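User: Can you help me understand a structure? I only have the sequence.
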Amino acid sequence: MNHVMKKFFIITLLISAYIQFPAFARPVQPQKAEHIEYMNLAWWEKYNDEYLTDNLLKLYENNYDLKNAALKVKENEQAVKIQFANELPQIGLSGQLYRDMRSSMKQYGSMQIPSYAQYNYYLPITASYEVDIWGSNRFRTKSMKQQLEIVKQAERATYIALTSDFASDYFNLIRADEFLKIQNELIKTQEDIISKTRAKYDIGLCTINDVLAEQRLLTTLKEERNRHIKTRDTLIDTMRVYLSNSSGNIERNAYENITVLTGIPTEYSTSIVENRPDYLQEEANIKRIGFDVKAARREFLPKFIIFGQIGLNAYHLDTLFNSVSQMFSAGILPSIDLFSGGRKIALLKLKKFQYEEALNSYQKAILLGIKDINSGLVEYKEAQENYKESADRLKMQNRTYSLAKDKQEIGSASDLDVLYAKEAYLMVRKDEVSNKINSVISTIGLYKAAGGVDLYKINENI
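Assistant: Let's start by predicting it. Here is the structure, written out as tokens:
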């Protein structure tokens, strides 16, 4: 028996040391984003832009917000484990070595205990377990699991927001590139107009005011070019932050290769809000607080704790592992608070108020979700119509420009007439570029509002 007890305590001490001291643990590896399915790459591939999907993959690998979102999920997973540990028995070893020095103050009849001093070696293993008769600890664990679900939906929301915002900036950057190209052509055309106008002035066919007016227009065009350069550079810097790359080049497609998505359904059931992370978060929050209310109610009921001790207690080290030094005790401890100053009542009321607040937030999340989706649909429809109108206007203006060149060839139109027609065409082309990109971005906004799901298949999931 002594040999068995020695082994038991040695093994217990080693296990305790391994658990308690982090030096024995493996070093923590840097957390990475883990849920590539949240990227929904199948949706982004519909834009037929390999540069876009490649950049989104880089965002998945490098973005710090995605890494932090993954860490928050890991943190809450450990919080669930911590709470679940309260449902399990607790076992601990708390040894004591002390020297007991007593004065001669105890007396039994005519016999008086003299002063003495001695060592005491006390090595108990203590176990306790709260019998969860009323399910309080189980409700708290369920509450923590719902909190974990809230954090998971927050992580998914981060993916949807980051990918959508990045994609919007990506297409805005392509628009800025195209605007700069058109603006440079406008400036070159305006410089040609100034040259032709000055030539007319030199031979007396126009006034100096005509020349000055054309020069003022040139300065306006150059100022606009500066704004486009600023927009482009700002977008590049912003996207570098997304990609966690302070100096890398942002690979992007040419404007001519941009695909405008068509045929997206424009009528959805209001139940599509159930795809949104904020709706799912509020739903989980109601469940979480509901479990908290149930746990708070059970605080008024008695608790039952089973406890026990096994170990060694000796006054001499050489007798520590002898059979006479072995100790054991066990029992059950019922307890109930007779007075707690109103704390439990206040806690229950607090949880009930939080539950009502969660219900209100849930209803608000539904309304906001419907509003966002309706707003996204309105913007999508408007952008589609504007793009069609601007494309038709561009065709007409291109026809006008072609007619001016034809007239020039037969001598019925001047070089200035052709340049003015070209300038008007370039102005309309800027509108067409802007409306085309707005049409693309409107589909991204609708995708984000619908909770990051394939818009072509959304009615199939209802």
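Now, to help you interpret it: The chain is about 60% helix and 10% strand. The longest helix spans residues 343-410. Let me know which part you'd like to focus on.
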